[in-house]
Write a structure and sequence with these properties.
Blueprint: H1 3-19, E1 34-35, H2 36-46, H3 52-61, E2 67-69, E3 75-78, E4 99-104, H4 108-114, E5 116-117, E6 124-126, H5 130-138, E7 143-148, H6 150-155, E8 161-162, E9 168-170, E10 172-173, E11 178-180
Antiparallel strand pairs: 1-3, 2-3, 4-7, 5-10, 6-9, 7-11, 8-9
Length: 182
């Protein structure tokens, strides 16, 4: 299978596991899990043809670790980024002193006015390294990176979670915790 086909299937999985499971009539439980065999069957009925071997390959090799299997490997979910209400079961954790948020330059003024909002997602996504934040920002045009005073936020009773793929999650970042990266 070509890289282009793998990317197409990965984007399809993001759609149905993060945003629109109804597209292929799968059910996500309260924690975002769905049955692997049901997913494969309904995806193939929808016209997106792949098997368990390809699914295993996508989960294992996705550079952003977007998807995860449960311990018994019979269920799959997206690691974060849902626009539908899912309880991922992560526990509040103390973040590092600084986290990073990558965005496009066109969004900088809006963020400086309102803070970083989760908008249609369940959480704000933050990176532990600047390189990842730059890559995220590049998806939105010329990249811009904010430093987030995450340890201070945590001290001020903001909750932080870390997803299975290492993305830090929080509900909102007020402007007072934002520093423009030099």
């Amino acid at each position: 299978m070509s890289d282009k086909q793998i990317t197409h299937i990965s984007k399809f999985l993001s759609l149905v596991l993060r945003h629109q499971p109804e597209t292929i009539a799968i059910h996500l439980d309260q924690n975002g899990w769905t049955d692997v065999d049901d997913l494969l069957d309904k995806a193939n009925n929808y016209g997106i043809s792949f098997d368990r071997e390809i699914l295993d390959h996508i989960v294992a090799t996705n550079s952003k670790k977007r998807f995860a299997f449960n311990d018994t490997l019979d269920k799959i979910r997206a690691s974060q980024g849902h626009s539908i209400e899912i309880e991922l079961g992560y526990t509040n954790q103390k973040p590092p002193e600084i986290l990073f948020h990558g965005t496009g330059e066109k969004s900088v003024q809006s963020i400086l006015n309102t803070g970083i909002e989760k908008r249609n997602r369940q959480h704000v996504h933050l990176s532990s390294d600047i390189e990842t934040a730059i890559k995220v920002g590049q998806r939105h045009g010329k990249p811009f990176v904010f430093r987030v005073l995450s340890e201070q936020m945590h001290t001020d009773n903001f909750e932080f979670f870390i997803s299975d793929n290492g993305v830090w999650l929080t509900d909102y970042v007020p402007t007072k915790y934002l520093k423009q990266n030099d």
